[in-house]
Write a structure and sequence with these properties.
Low-confidence stretches: none
Mean pLDDT: 80
Strand content: 15-25%
Number of strands: 5
Largest sheet: 5 strands, antiparallel
Structural class: alpha+beta
Order of helices and strands: HEHHEEEEHHH
Number of helices: 6
Distance between the termini: 113 Å
Radius of gyration: 32 Å
């Protein structure tokens, strides 16, 4: 008689354990705050359009910034990797690789890059602005008294009027 009760209790607790071990939520209800993680250089279509074969390393660095990965064993290759992890937005990762021959760009490879407008839209969190429900009906709003015009009060200076003695006495 005790064995079926123990088995049922163990089964019930194992279901709770899977909820507790989930890193995304606590009890399936509370979601902890996760900080935004942005790594690397943002490279868009407009920026990548400036990279052409024949550019020097200094020019590439001015346009794309410092590479995230500059391997001493592959000195003729710079890797630009961009990742962003933001709560409420799908994770993104993009890679651009620039190959050099000597000190000039020979070729480059890139993932599908968004335009600047598409990039901003992809990381923007949708915000919902909820308009509070009106507590008054239109008839009640119409019955409210009209505020008194206070144009005269705005023209008069506010605060204390001060007079200061001259800084230097007349000699």
């Amino acid at each position: 008689m005790l064995a079926p009760v123990a088995a049922l209790a163990l089964l019930a607790l194992s279901g709770c354990g899977s909820r507790l071990s989930s890193p995304e939520t606590l009890f399936g209800v509370i979601q902890p705050y996760q900080i935004d993680v942005v790594q690397g250089n943002v490279v868009t279509q407009e920026v990548m359009a400036q990279i052409q074969p024949g550019l020097g390393r200094t020019q590439v660095r001015e346009i794309l910034g410092s590479p995230l990965l500059a391997d001493p064993f592959h000195a003729d290759r710079w890797d630009y990797v961009f990742t962003i992890h933001r709560q409420g937005v799908p994770k993104q990762q993009r890679r651009v690789t620039v190959f050099f021959k000597g000190d000039v760009v020979e070729r480059f490879e890139a993932d599908t890059l968004p335009s600047e407008h598409e990039f901003v839209a992809s990381i923007d969190k949708p915000t919902e602005i909820k308009k509070p429900p009106a507590n008054l009906t239109e008839a009640q709003v119409a019955a409210l008294p009209v505020p008194v015009k206070t144009e005269d009060a705005r023209k008069t200076p506010q605060g204390a009027v001060r007079e200061y003695p001259p800084l230097e006495s007349g000699r």
